[in-house]
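Per reviewer request, we include the raw input and output of the structure prediction for the construct analysed in the revised manuscript.
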Amino acid sequence: MKTRLARIACLSIVAALPIAAHASPVDTGFGTVTSISTGWTPSNVIRVTTSAPFANPDSCPGTDGYMTEDGDSSNPAHHAAILAAFLSGKQVDFIVSGCTSLNRPRIISVIVNN
């Protein structure tokens, strides 16, 4: 019985390791967009900074803003929402998860506050 419990405990720990390696999506908190940068290759990504404290749940090496990821089908909507918030002075909140291929926190959702 003890051997079986020990196996179950070990399997539970091993099964949880991949979950611990990547943080869950994190809400960055509302802030105004302070900069938008483009021009990387690939060219369909943007880097954004806000007035809210920087959130980096996965300890991405790049700490100079959040980025969209090349190939994400939601990029056009994210980019439009970010630009609209920047031009109107509205506050934005990002949900970030993981690191982009350019090593910055990856934007997976954009919320604009009216």
